[in-house]
Amino acid sequence: MAVYNAFAYSEVNMKRTLVLRALTAIWAAGNCLAQPGAAGPSANPSESRPRTLSPYFTPATSAPKQPDADGFIQRWLLLEPIDKPNRTNTVFTDTYVRNALNSQYFPNQFSLIPHNGDKVKVGEQELVWHALDSTGFNVKLFRFAYGLNKTTYGVIFWAVTVIDSPREIQNARMTVGVNGAAMWWLNGKEVVDLFGDRRMKMDDCVSKRLTLNKGRNVIRGAVINGPGLSDFCLRFIDENGAPIKDLSISLDPAAN
Amino acid sequence: MKFYIPVAAFLLTSAIPALFAQAPALNGEPYIHDPSTVAFSDGKYFVFGTGGGGLISEDGWTWHSGAQRPGGGVAPDVIKIGDRYYMTYARGGGGLSGGHASNVYVMWTKSLDPASPEFKFNDETLVASSDGVEDCDAIDPSFLLDPTTGRLWLSYGTYFGYIRIVELDPKTGKRVAGNKPVDVAIDMEATDLVARDGWYYLLGTHGTCCDGANSTYNIRVGRSRNVLGPYMDHMGIPLLKGGGKLVVAASGRFVGPGHFGRLDLGDGVEKFSMHYEADLDRSGRSVLDIRPVLWKDGWPVGGDNFWGGDFEIQSERSGFALELAVDFVRLPGRGGFGAGGGRGRGTAVPGAGPPAGTPAAPSAPAVQAVQGQRLYDVLHGWPTGTIDLRIGDYMMRPHQKWTITPVPNAGGYPGSPYFKIQIAETDRTLAAAEGNEVVTVPTFTGAPEQLWRIDQLTDGAYRIIPKAVPNSADPVALSAVGASTPTLARFDPKSDKGRWTFRKP
Fold it and tell me: Which residues in chain B have Cβ-Cβ distances shorter than 8 Å to A49?
C-alpha cells in the first residue's frame, strides 16, 4: 500500500509527496474526500464514465455460495464507508485501531446481521448495506466505495457474512490479509487483528486455533484506511494448514 | 576526493568487535530517490532518479550529481542494447495531483555522458499507460532483455492495482504491435525483472516509502519459469495474492531499501543497486547503495559489503589459511588428551602424564587456560624485508591473523573502496609482486599493488583482486595454485582456487 504521508517531504521524494500536497489541500478545504482524479486533470475521459461495481462485484443471489478454490470467502454484506478522516496511514497503531474499531457507530454494531438494502445512520451519514459477491479472491473495498460514488480515503468499512459449516471443525484458524488495518470477530469473539499500515497478503495474520460450529457462524470485520487502496481476503484453514472449502455462504434474509 | 566514513559507521567499525562491521553507503554525495539500474557508459557509471537528474561515478564507489535525463517524471530505468541506451520513465500517476493516470515512455541515446557528442535522446515513444481509474498506475518501469530469447520486456506499476508486463521491440524500444499487458503481481512497486538459470525473477518493493526513517520499504521477490508468470514466492504464495520472499530489509543505519537494480559484473560477482529511504548517518536522506547479491537455493539474497576487521583468510580450495612463510613456533606446555593426557603423536612433553587409561593422580595440576601465541613471542624471528606467503593449517598464530582496513582516497569499485590487508598489529602488508606473484612487504605505502578489491561472490565466498600488479596488466586474483601455495591468477568462477572466506581469527 502506498502511504502518502502528509508530513514527509524532500525534493527527491517528488513521486509520492506531491500527492500529499494535493490531498492536504483537499482536506484543508474542509472535506476528507480525496477521490482519485479529483485534484487531477478533469479532462480524463475515464473519470467521466459512469461508476459501477462491475467488474469487481456482482449482486449476491439467494443460491448458497461456496468458497473459491483456495477457500477464500467472496460473499459479503458490505456497509457503505463510514467517514473517518485520516491524512496518513501512519497513525494506525494498535491502540488507535482498537479504539477506532471498537467505537460505536451504529446500533447493534457487533450483533447485527443485516439484509441487503438495510440502512443505518452514522452521524449525518445514512449508509446502506450491500450483499455482494466479489469476483476475485479479495474484496476490493476501494472499488466498492468508488463504484458507489462514496468516499474512498479516510474511511471505515464494515463487513458481515454468515457461513454454514456441515460439521464442527476444531483447531481451525481464520486467516486474513488486508490493505489498511482491521479487526475481525467470529461468533462475537475477536479473533484476528491487523494493526499498523499493512499491505494485503493472503494468510498475513492468522487467528489462534478456534472451533467452527456445525451450522451457522457469523464473521464480522472492520477495515480502516486513510489514503490508498483498501481490500481484504479471508479464509479458514484446518489444523494441517489446508483451506477449508466445504462451507456454504448464504445471505438470504430467510436464512438469517 | 573526500573519503566519506560516517561517524557512526566508524564507531561501529572501531568499537564493536564484530566479525563483519556494517559498511557505509556509497562515498561522495549519492543522494537519489527511485534509482535506475546502474549503467556503464564512456568509462563511467550512471544512475538516474526521479525528477530528471542522476549520479555519475568514475569507479562505482564515489558518486556525484551530474547525470542528465530529459522528460522529468519519475523512477527511470536504463538498459544498453547494441549501441543504444534505452531509457524509460513515467510521467503522471504515482498519486501525483491525486491521480493515477500515467504514461510510460522510452527513448534512446548512444551515450549517457552529457559531455559526449553522442549524448542525445531520440524517439521518445509511449509504451504503456494507465487511465487513472483502472487497477494499475503506470509508473516505475523497468527493462529485461531476455538472454535466452532476445525479447525485451518492461514491467511497471505501483500499489494502485497490478504490476504489469508488456513487450517492447529491442530494435526500436517501441511497444510490440498488438501486445497486451499481463498482470503479474499486486501491492508492489519499483519492480525489476531478472532472468537466471531458467527462472524469471520479479523483484519489487513492499512497505511504505517516502516517510524517512519510518519508511518500511523492503525488497521482495517471486519467480516463475515463464516471464509472464505466474510468479510465486518460496512459500508458494502467488505475487498476485501478495506473496514475496524477502531480499533485503532495513538494517544497521539504513532504512527502507527499495528500487532493486541488478548489476552483473561477471565471473560470479553480482551486485544490486537500490536506494535507502533514509541513511541515518546522512541526516536521514535518501541515498544510493550497491551491495552484493547472493544466491541461495535459487533465490536472491541481499548481501552486505565487506568493511574489514580481523580475520583468518581461509582458502576454499584447501581449507587452509593464508600465512607468512616463517618458522612455525610451537606453543610451550603440556600435550596429550584423555584423563591424564600423554598419548599424542609425539606432541606430549615426555613424562608429562601417565599411560593412557590411567586415572589421574590426585596430585595432577588443576586445569588452566593456555596462553595463546602473541606477536612479540614470534616477531623477532621474522625477516624484516619481503616475506613470501603460503597456505597452511590454521593454528591461530600471529603469522596467520590479518587486519583488513578500507583505505581512504584510494578509489574503489562498485559498492566499496579498496582495502589494505596486513598482518594484525603490524604494518606488514599483502602486495602483488612482479610475475603475478604475491608477497608481504614490511610497510604500507599506498602503492596500487598494496590495494585490494574484495568482492563477495554469489555463493558467499570472496574474490580478492589487487588494484595493480607491477609490470602487468593481467586481470588476476589471489588464487591457491596448490593446496598450500598462493599466487595471482585469472579468476575462474567455476573453481575454488580463487575463493576465500573470512573467518573469526
Answer: 133
Q: Is the pTM of this model over 0.90?
A: no
* pLDDT, greater one: A185 or B10: A185
pLDDT recorded at residue B98? 63
CATH number at residue B247: 2.115.10.20
Q: Strand, coil or helix: what is B493?
A: coil
Same domain, B288 and B429: no
- CATH number of the domain residue B416 falls in: 2.80.10.50
Looking at residue B406, what is its pLDDT? 98
Q: Which CATH architecture has domain A56-106+113-255?
A: Sandwich (2.60)
Residue B118 lies in a domain: yes
Q: Does the distance separating the beta carbons of B99 and A39 come in below 8 Å?
A: yes
Q: For B316-330, b where at least 16 C-beta lie within 10 A, e where not — what string?
A: bbbebbbbbbbeeee
Determine, yes or no, domain membership for B336: no
A250 in B contact zone (CB under 8 Å): no
Say whether both B314 and B295 belong to one domain: no
Least Cα distance to B413 among B463, B447, B486 occurs for: B463
A interface test, pick of B211, B217, B235, B259 with most A CB neighbours within 10 Å:
B211
Which residues of B, range 90-109, sit inside 8 Å of A by Cβ? Answer: 94-101
Same domain, B77 and B146: yes
Q: Residue A10: its chain B contacts at CB < 8 A?
A: 33, 212, 285-286
Spatial distance between the Cα atoms of B222 and A236, rounded to a whole number of angstroms: 24
* Contact yes or no for B32 and A229 at CB 8 A: no
- Number of A/B CB contacts below 8 angstroms equals 151
Is the confidence at residue B362, as pLDDT, over 80? Answer: no
Q: Which residues contact B319 (CB under 8 A, 6 or more apart)?
A: none
- Mean pLDDT over B196-208 rounds to 96
Domain edges within chain A: 56-106+113-255
Among B99, B189, B286, the residue with its CB nearest the CB of A37 is B99
**Who wins on pLDDT, A45 or A121?**
A121
| C-alpha to C-alpha distance for A194 and A179, rounded to whole angstroms | 9
Query: What's the pLDDT tens digit per position in B447-468?
Result: 999 999 999 999 999 999 999 9
pLDDT at B150: 98
Domain assignment present for residue B334? The answer is no
Question: Do B131 and B208 belong to one domain?
Answer: yes
| Three cell numbers, residue B405 | 582496513
Least confident among A36-45, A105-114, B248-257: A36-45
Taking 80 as the threshold, does the pLDDT of residue A17 lie above it?
A: no
3-state secondary structure of A227: coil
Q: What is the pLDDT of residue B7?
A: 40
Residue A241 contacts by C-beta under 8 Å, 6 or more apart in sequence?
A: none
Q: Which of A16, A22, A200 sits opposite B210 (nearest CB)?
A: A16
C-alpha dihedral, B466 to B469 to B472 to B478, nearest 10°:
-50
DSSP string, B309-377: EEEEEEETTTS-EEEES----PPPS----TTT---SSS-SPTTSSPPTTPPPPTTPPPP-PPPPP-HHH
In a domain, B128, yes or no: yes
What residue numbers bound the domain in which B464 lies?
310-329+373-503
Chosen from A4, A10, A15 to mutate, greatest number of chain B CBs within 10 A = A15
**Residue of B134, B162, B210, B287 to mutate when probing chain A, most A C-beta within 10 A:** B210
Contact at 8 Å (CB) between B437 and B420?
no
Cβ–Cβ < 8 Å for A160, A186: no
Give the residue from A228, A235, A237, A157 showing the smallest Cα distance to A198: A228
Residue with cell 472535506: A31
Q: Cis peptide leading into B505, omega within 30 of 0?
A: no
Decide if A147 touches B, using CB distance below 8 A. Answer: no
